[in-house]
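Whiteboard transcription, Tuesday session. T.W. wrote the structure tokens on the left side:
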């Protein structure tokens, strides 16, 4: 139970701290509305499922100990986040030119994919899950409890 409370508190601080996921949801909500932001949030929640899967299978430790793979992930994540920032800046002027009706063209699947990619390629999220699943959660913790904690983090992020 102590592990769960520790993980829950750490996760709450991670979710509310400014970062790419937070910036994406804020941007989507203000620019396109709640529905698009919800689909992006669902994509971010699925990104958390991905990180939990990596952590539970031990793939995150393998990636962490392979500097080349870890650096490629960090570079791809940084490039993707920079790309999102650039698109955000460029689309601001484009939205002004096209009018507000153009914001309705954003598709749910695209919003979901943007959220998924933002979280999956976020180096901060990757490092967070490596830390949580290797330092906070012991090896003796039952796998079902680890899955429960992962599901909790995914659902709490979505909400």
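and on the right, the sequence the group agreed on:
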């Amino acid at each position: 139970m102590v592990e769960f409370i520790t993980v829950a508190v750490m996760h709450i601080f991670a979710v509310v701290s400014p970062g790419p996921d937070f910036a994406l949801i804020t941007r989507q909500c203000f620019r396109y509305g709640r529905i698009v932001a919800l689909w992006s949030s669902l994509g971010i929640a699925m990104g958390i499922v991905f990180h939990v899967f990596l952590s539970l299978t031990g793939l995150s430790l393998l990636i962490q100990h392979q500097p080349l793979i870890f650096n490629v992930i960090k570079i791809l994540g940084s490039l993707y986040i920079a790309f999102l920032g650039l698109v955000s800046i460029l689309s601001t002027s484009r939205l002004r030119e096209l009018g507000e009706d153009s914001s309705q063209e954003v598709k749910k699947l695209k919003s979901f994919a943007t959220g998924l990619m933002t979280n999956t390629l976020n180096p901060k999220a990757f490092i967070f899950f490596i830390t949580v699943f290797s330092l906070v959660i012991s090896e003796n913790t039952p796998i079902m409890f680890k899955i429960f904690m992962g599901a909790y983090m995914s659902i709490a992020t979505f909400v």
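Someone added at the bottom: Confidence is low (pLDDT under 50) at residues 96-103.
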